[in-house]
Amino acid sequence: MTGFSVSGTAFGDLGAITEPGGQPADGHTENAMEVDLIAYTPATGTVASTHVKYDMLHGKIPFVLASTPLSLTGEVSLSMWNMVTVSAWPYYLPGHPDGGMGAQINPLATMQFLNPTLTIYTSAVPEPETYAMLLAGLAVIGLARRRRRPA
Description:
Helix content is 14%, strand content 49%. By secondary structure, the protein is mainly β. It is rod-shaped. Residues 124-148 form the Ice-binding protein C-terminal domain. It comes from Massilia mucilaginosa. This is PEP-CTERM sorting domain-containing protein.
């Protein structure tokens, strides 16, 4: 394996926390996403990893996590770890003048990991039979050219 990458889109939404009339309220929303991609070769103990984290995301962000050039051979273990956290605390609208509490408002907070795509890069390594056929072909061409030469 010569490298790896994961791509996708992080999409988050932090709902508005406002009272009627557009005034800020006491509620709170937050979101976060982390992605780790790790390659491990048991024979050599080689580890390659890449990481991304987004906090308080309101909208879409395309991302690509790509490894540095690698040279991993033999058995390779590839693992991906993803954590998404979302939290929202409610707030209350102003109460009535007689002292009653106002309505509880639950704000919206979301976080999504959309269209994940894992790509593993490898280099083409010819098999020994390919080299043998190449050498045999060159030998046949050499013999044919040698026989065609005028004496």
